């Protein structure tokens, strides 16, 4: 289980707390929605769970233990996949830096082998989002934080990506935190929704 236990966080030394005494638990294979107005700390919570930020108070534990060094079993996916990749690397290098995906994983996400010889600027936003998801699905992944990952995509691409992610949650018992303003999306994909 991925757990946030009483976590608090504020930007800057004396800045106000954006997240205050927040608790959350995500079970393996569960899709939990995180919703709420802008500025309430949803993305910050996601980054805290993925260890991109450290809480000022409280703890984050994975399967009962504090996060260990090395591969992070909690991966964070953002709304803008371009910022998560090195623009000077070919797509193949970007993906295989994490793992060597099999044909089934690529097919499930609609990733074409021909993309591996291209560079990030040569792919569309939807194609790049599929690449960052594929890279995150490395063996050892236990939890995935999906922060508005399909908000800039057309409805068809959005449906395809979430269909693939829900299959990953079910077949690999990967817990997912889906951060979104879209109540209709939350109703379709989440087992339950937490509001901040």
> CATH architecture, please?
3-Layer(aba) Sandwich
Give the amount of beta strand, in percent: 15-25%
Number of domains: 1
**CATH homologous superfamily grouping:** P-loop containing nucleotide triphosphate hydrolases
Structure in a nutshell:
With 196 residues, the protein is of the alpha/beta class. It has helices spanning 42-49, 91-96, 103-109, 125-136, 155-172, 183-189, and strands at residues 2-9, 19-26, 31-35, 57-62, 74-77, 143-147, 175-179, 192-195.
Write a structural description:
It is a single chain. The chain is α/β, with parallel strands linked by helices and 196 residues long. Helices cover 30% and strands 23% of the residues. The protein has helices at 42-49, 91-96, 103-109, 125-136, 155-172, 183-189; strands at residues 2-9, 19-26, 31-35, 57-62, 74-77, 143-147, 175-179, 192-195. The strands form 2 sheets. The chain has a 5-stranded parallel beta sheet, sandwiched between helices. Strands 2-1-4 form a 3-stranded antiparallel beta sheet. β6 (143-147), α5 (155-172) and β7 (175-179) form a beta-alpha-beta unit.
């Amino acid at each position: 289980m991925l757990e946030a236990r009483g976590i608090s966080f504020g930007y800057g030394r004396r800045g106000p707390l954006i997240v205050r005494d927040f608790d959350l638990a995500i079970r393996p294979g569960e899709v939990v929605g995180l919703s709420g107005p802008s500025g309430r700390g949803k993305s910050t919570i996601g980054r805290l769970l993925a260890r991109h930020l450290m809480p000022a108070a409280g703890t984050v534990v994975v399967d009962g233990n504090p996060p260990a060094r090395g591969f992070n079993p909690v991966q964070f996916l953002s709304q803008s996949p371009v910022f998560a990749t090195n623009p000077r690397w070919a797509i193949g290098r970007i993906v295989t830096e994490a793992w060597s995906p099999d044909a089934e994983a690529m097919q499930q996400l609609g990733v074409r082998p021909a993309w591996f010889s291209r560079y990030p600027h040569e792919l569309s936003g939807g194609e790049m989002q599929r690449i960052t998801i594929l890279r995150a699905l490395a063996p050892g992944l236990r939890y995935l934080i999906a922060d508005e990952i399909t908000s800039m995509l057309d409805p068809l691409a959005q449906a395809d990506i979430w269909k693939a992610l829900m299959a990953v949650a079910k077949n690999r018992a990967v817990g997912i935190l889906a951060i979104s303003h879209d109540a209709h999306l939350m109703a379709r994909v989440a087992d339950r929704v937490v509001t901040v």
